[in-house]
Amino acid sequence: MVLFRLVIGLCLVAVAAHVSIAQRQAGGNTTENAVSAANAFLATLDDGKRAKANRPLTASTRGIWSNLPTGIALQTGATERNGLKLADMTPVQERSALALLASVLSRDGYAKAMQIVDADQVLETRSAPSREATARVRFGRGEFYLALLGKPTATDPWMIQFGGHHLAINVTLAAREAVLTPTHTGSQPASYSIEGRTIRPLGDENDKAFALMNALSPDQRKQALLGYEVRNIVLGPGTDGRMIQPEGIKGSALSDKQRAMLLDLAREWIDIISDPAAVAKAAEVKGNLADTYFAWAGSVTNGQPAYFRIQGPTVFIEYAPQGASASTDHIHTIYRDPTNDYLAKATSR
Amino acid sequence: MRRRIVLGVALTALFPAAGGAHRLDEFLHATRVALEPQSIRLELELTPGSSIARSVVNRIDVDHDQRFSGDEAESYARLVLRDVSVWLDGTALDLRLQHVEVATPEELLAGMGAISMVATRTMVPTLGRHQLKLRNNHENAAVYLMNALVPETDDIIITAQSRDGRQQEFSIDYEVRSPPSQLWWILPLCLSVGTFGARRLRERL
To answer: Could you tell me if A208 and A265 are in contact, meaning their C-beta atoms sit under 8 angstroms apart?
Structure first.
């Protein structure tokens, strides 16, 4: 009987934990969960590591993120990312750091981030054997940094940054608001295998974009096509505060189904952050779809290189193949909100 | 001119472009154009691929000491700007270099470093429609990006943009409007003052 009660009790604890995790990932209070996870992470660190991991939140510090690998000065001139890199964390610290990241991302968003990290580990494995011992550039999982900017509180603004080569997750939280912009995702290789499974971190972005482009009529496609080569994202790291003129086909010229496809494509970035922030952002973008532009450059055949851009009043997304002949194996993207990067609306109140 | 960042790091071992890490045989020239009420500002960012970066490094490092001095960075920036032609309504404009930053030789050779510069031209604003045209003739083997930034003032409206297929040539049609807010309070004020003054004069007469 005692054993039976013990088993029942353990089951109840397991269910409660599962519900808690599910609730955390389904929404709940993102900021409170994040504060809790942040404090738990900071508690694993000694004074030296804590000072490195938790920096002040300023206009200068928040802009320190990049697509570039370790060993290259970042676009803002900083020689190192904010925070602690995974290679400098103990296993307990790393688990706590990733739990913090998971507390602000959706399940799929966290999976995408980890797939990008794994892609960089593949790149490291491939490149390390031929690298000179004195070369400073490094790839791989250990070179991804986690930083807290500002004091984690349930009221005042603070940030979580997680990034490395081809990844810069920037989540700004204040009270019950949270935003993911600006954020960079990228991948090289764009496709790799782990345990027999093919992983394409940005595969859905690619496939949905080609599906949308091929759903346009010839006349609509003509409006969407930029008519010139685009070989990189325009508003990548280091271009905070800038916005370019919109081009392409306007949402008002799309059918309801095409607008739904456009929103579904944008949600590959919007839904990286957890609910309810993602739900709120998606609703906002949906409300502005008529004034949102979709632009394209390159082939319309999936598998060939192509650039695309989604630009609306509160959303800016670019997807660009990189390198020689615009390789499809190396992709950069950027996700911004011209009105509210770094939760500017809340921090200016 | 703002102080340049002098990057004088000695050249270390080359980083091989393993796994096609970043650009290889391309020299990317990205230009952002800002139309401001009294000036035009160009932000240029040049990123040579690792396969061609050696020639760029050699062009910057004229004394071959394997470091970039401030003077070398500035000289190279001026060399680039000489190949960038700008016309406003058909009249050629000279650009003034305001700022240049150059990555280290190692970073450029890795295909990941960039040469960034800002050039401006001051103008007297005139109301009405205008066309700004740019052409970048530096390094014909380059790949180009040209974009207009959304103006920071509502007084400038960009009405059209066009590029050639390589984005080597770019034109921006725009309109400069008088700020309506200024006229909004000036006109009634002038009318009120004029009316009051006229009435007073009539009373005296």
So the answer is: yes
Residues 6+ apart with CB under 8 A from A309: A247, A248, A293, A294, A295, A296, A316, A317, A318, A319
pLDDT at B50: 87
Q: Which residue has the tokens 């995974």?
A: A86
User: Which of A75, A130, A329 faces B18 most closely, judged by CB atoms?
Assistant: A130
Residue A339 at interface with chain B, using a CB cutoff of 8 Å: no
**Least CB–CB distance from B19: residue in A123, A228, A232:** A123
Residues B148-171, mean pLDDT to the nearest whole number: 94
The secondary structure element, H or E, covering residue B86 is strand B84-88
pLDDT at B205 over 90: no
Is some CB atom of chain A closer than 8 A to the CB atom of B142?
Answer: no
Reported pTM: 0.87
The residue to which tokens 């759903």 are assigned = A215
Write out the two tokens for A304: 């060939």
Which of the pair, A289 or B138, is modelled with greater confidence?
Answer: A289
Percentage of chain A with pLDDT > 90? 81
Instruction: Tell me how far apart the alpha carbons of residues B136 and A190 are, in angstroms, rounded to a whole number.
Output: 32
Is residue A229 within 8 A of residue B143, CB to CB? The reply is: yes
Prediction ipTM score: 0.84
Which amino acid is residue B149, in one-letter code? L
Alpha-carbon distance of A47 to A43, in angstroms, equals: 10
Q: How far is Cα A339 from Cα B86, in angstroms, rounded to an integer?
A: 31
